[in-house]
Task: inverse folding
């Protein structure tokens, strides 16, 4: 299990906060993408979106958030749930 890859999800109170942070990440060349917030970590948040990061970009993302004092709720690590073979039929 030590080799299990983690994905990091940044959660938000509002969709607007998420889109603003994604824009900052693009300007800073931090690879990320908009993703649905996994239900297991969404909790009581009304916003169902998150920003998905790979582990190697988390520190750069935190620095960008701090530099711009960007709004976010939490950063949560989860084992990779993305199946690269999904929707491939050949």
Result:
């Amino acid at each position: 299990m030590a080799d299990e890859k983690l994905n990091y999800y940044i959660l938000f109170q509002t969709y607007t906060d998420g889109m603003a942070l994604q824009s900052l990440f693009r300007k800073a060349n931090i690879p990320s993408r908009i993703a649905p917030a996994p239900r297991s970590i969404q909790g009581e948040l009304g916003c169902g979106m998150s920003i998905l990061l790979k582990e190697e970009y988390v520190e750069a993302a935190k620095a960008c958030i701090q530099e711009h004092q960007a709004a976010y709720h939490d950063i949560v690590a989860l084992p990779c749930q993305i199946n690269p073979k999904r929707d491939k039929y050949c």
The CA atoms of residues 11 and 74 lie 5 Å apart.
